[in-house]
Design brief:
The protein is built from 5 helices and no strands. By secondary structure, it is mainly α. The protein has one domain. It is flat.
């Protein structure tokens, strides 16, 4: 009887060994599969990052080209702080895009991110109003409207896209503040009970 038990226990041990070896091989397969998925996700993230930097480079370069063409001596266009501010911000955006692409540093953290957001809002405002002034019905800028009509049409379209997103940003900001104030009020009301 003891020999029968030892045979059964040895069969049970061999079955459990085969189960554990098969489970470890299946877990290595799943780990191997997840490694491939992880590498694929990393490649997709890098490709997305490169595409976004290239799109930003094209957009910022177009804006700079548009603004430089307005600096001709024969142009009598509006030249105020917005013109130079937009150019500086475009160059800064290009530099930050390449820095973010080359290094894996997170340039969007802490106080630096707050400064970038504030400067970005000012840039959106400056670009929106500046393009509007260049295309005003009263005195349109000939260098913008006549000399570069395709880029000017794109900039007018881009102006409205910026206005839309800036409007959404403001709306969500206001809703966030209202929600935060409501949560504080509700928490204070509960603490008084």
């Amino acid at each position: 009887m003891s020999s029968k038990l030892s045979k059964k226990s040895s069969k049970g041990k061999s079955r459990s060994r085969s189960r554990s070896s098969s489970s470890s091989s299946s877990s290595s397969k799943s780990m191997f599969g997840s490694d491939i998925e992880l590498k694929s996700q990393m490649h997709n993230a890098i490709a997305f990052k490169v595409i976004m930097v290239l799109l930003s480079l094209a957009l910022q370069s177009t804006i700079i080209y548009y603004l430089i063409n307005l600096e001709d001596a024969s142009c009598k266009c509006v030249m105020d702080w917005r013109h130079n501010f937009i150019k500086v911000m475009c160059v800064l955006s290009i530099i930050m895009g390449f820095a973010n692409l080359i290094t894996d540093a997170h340039l969007t953290s802490g106080i630096f991110m707050g400064i970038i957001i504030i400067l970005g809002i000012i840039e959106y405002y400056a670009l929106y109003t500046y393009i509007g002034d260049l295309n005003s019905e009263v005195s349109p800028c000939a260098c913008a409207v006549d000399k570069q009509p395709k880029i000017n049409k794109f900039m007018k379209f881009y102006r409205y896209v910026l206005g839309f997103f800036l409007g959404l940003y403001v709306i969500f900001g206001v809703l966030f503040v209202i929600g935060l104030l409501f949560a504080i009020y509700y928490a204070m009301k509960l603490s008084k009970k």
